[in-house]
Amino acid sequence: NASSAADGQQISMELENDRLMVGQEQVAHGHGFQPGESVTATQYSTPYDIGTSVADDNGDVTFTWSVPNGTEDGNHTVELTGETSGSVDASFEVYSTGGGGLSPTGGDMAVPLGGLAIAMLLAGAGVWFVTRRRANA
């Protein structure tokens, strides 16, 4: 999204991630602020103060934060507000893992148990072969 600053310059921002889970890192890049301007960042639905940064010589700022615990699933907005340039916002989605609450079934053990079964079969065949060979000798 873009917004016009008081001097007619466009301020804008981009978010690095469209979808995140709680605890994952989000990064916001703001552009077009006045060099040296103090810019604050806030994540909404429930306001979360991301912090304050000073725009560099090009008018750019970057904010990095982890999506806080307690952030509900759904769309959330990040707003960057400059002291003189005004505000700009962008949205992203927070989602759960969607595990559905199913109990583990042990399906991850199929490969190790299959390998063990083959090893035991080969060992048994070897014992049978050696025993039979001794009996015929």
Automatic annotation (TrEMBL):
The chain crosses the membrane at residues 109-131. Keywords: Membrane, Transmembrane, Transmembrane helix. This is Gram-positive cocci surface proteins LPxTG domain-containing protein. It comes from Candidatus Microbacterium stercoravium.
